[in-house]
Structure prediction request, 230 residues.
Amino acid sequence: RKEVEQDPGPFNVPEGATVAFNCTYSNSASQSFFWYRQDCRKEPKLLMSVYSSGNEDGRFTAQLNRASQYISLLIRDSKLSDSATYLCVVNMIGGGSYIPTFGRGTSLIVHP
Amino acid sequence: DTGVSQDPRHKITKRGQNVTFRCDPISEHNRLYWYRQTLGQGPEFLTYFQNEAQLEKSRLLSDRFSAERPKGSFSTLEIQRTEQGDSAMYLCASSPIPGDLHPGKTQYFGPGTRLLVL
Prediction:
C-alpha cells in the first residue's frame, strides 16, 4: 500500500460544478497536511494547508479526518482555470524526521 | 526574481556520465529539499537540509546520488554513473524554519531540472 493514495482521475467536470477529491494516508502519526496544485510542466505550488478543524479559502474547502486517515479538497463553482493536477502532501515520520510525502496527484479538467 | 532557481533547466547525458544540478533557494529560507518527479507521479522526496546540515538522506535512491549544501545557501545534487532510469524531473524546494519542529510549512518549488539519460 502506498503511503499517500489519491485517485489519479481525470475528473472531467463542466464549469460551475462542485468537485471533491480525497486522499488517504497510511501513517497515523502523520503531522501537517497540504494540498498543492501543479499545472502541466510547471512546478507544484501550495494551494492550502489542511487543519483539523477544516478550513476554507474562497471556493476551496479542505478537511482532515484523522480517525479515518484521509484529507479532502472541495472545489465549488469550478472555473476553467482550475484545470490542473492536485497533489496531496502529508508529513510522515520516517528515520527520525518528518518527510513530506506526496500523492501521485488527481487530474482535474474543467470544460466549458 | 527572488524565487527558487535551478540550473540547468534541461540536461541530456549519456548513460554512465556524471551530472550535477544546482539549486539556489529563496535567500532567507533555511530549509532546502530535493525531489524527483516522473511522469504521472507526485514528487518523491530525496533529501533535505537545514542550513548546511543534511538532516535526512535515507531516501536518496542509491549511493550514486549525493547532495551538498556546503555554506547553507545553494545546494547541488549529483548523480554518478547515470542510468536510463534516472531520467526524470529533479525539483528543489525551500522553506523557512517553521515555528514547530515539523517540516512542511510552505515549500516554494523551483522550475526543476529535466534530465534525459540516453
